[in-house]
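Tutorial, part two.
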Amino acid sequence: MAAAQNVGIALGAGAARGLAHIGILQVLKENGVPIHCVAGSSVGAVIGSLFAAGVELPLLAKMAKAMRWDDLVGLTISRSGLVSTERIYQMLRFLTKDRRIEQLDIPVAFVAADLRTGNEVVFQEGSAAFAVRASLSIPGVFVPVESNGRVLVDGGLLNRIPVDVARDRLGADVVIAADLGFSDFRGRLRSLPDIILRTIDILERQAAVQEPLHADVVISPPLSDVGSTQLNRASEVIERGRRAAEESLPEIWNRLRSEPGASDR
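Running the prediction step on this input gives:
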C-alpha cells in the first residue's frame, strides 16, 4: 500500500444494529487493515470513540453482550425527551478516560444535528463523551444536548454514514463504510419510542435512496431482522458484522493495492 494512503472508516447509525461495528473492527484489525481515522454518527460515534480511545475490542464485545438498556438509560421528567442519556455519558467519560477528541489515539469526527438550524454539526475537538452523547440523542426519545445555543440530536438524521466527513474533514484517501441498513417493518408499534424510531427510520430510508454512498468499500451486514432496541442479540449481531467484514476483505485489499500483513495502526 502506498504510504500516502490515509484509510478511514465511516461507522453508521443503527441503534442496536450498531454492535455489528465491533465485529467489523475486530476483523479489520485482525487482518492488518490500517485504520487511520474514524467518522461516526449515532451508535457509530459510540463505537468509534471507544475504538479511538484504545478500548480493546474483545473487552468491548464482552461488555456489549452483558449490556441491557436499563444499564444505559433512565426515564426522566422532561419536556424535551423521555429518556436521559446521563448513564451513557458517564460510561463514555470513563471508557475514554474523559479525554478530548484531540487526545484520542487516531483522528475522529462525530456528527450531530442542530434542531434550531437544521444544520449538521461535526465535532473534531472538545470532550469526546460530550460529542458522542450529542450524536446519539434520538429526538423525542433521548433528551437533546444543549450547547452554545444549539440543540443537538442524533447525527443520523442528516448524515447516516458520514463518508464525506471521513474524506473531507479527516483527509481519508480510502473510505470503508459500515452500512447497518434498516430494520424491517414486522415489529409491532407498542409505545411512543417505537413510533418515533419507526418515523426516523422511514426518513433515513428516503435520504439513503436520494444520496447513495460514495465509499470505496461498503461493508453491509444483513441485519434487517434486528430491531433497534434488541441489545439482547449482541452476540449474533457482532458475529454478523465479522462475517460481512471477512467477505469484504478481498475487495478492501484490492482497493488498497496491497497484500494483507503489516498494519500502520
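Strands lie at 7-11, 37-41, 74-75, 83-84, 108-114, 120-123, 145-147, 150-154, 174-178, 217-219. In part three we will examine how such features are distributed along the chain.
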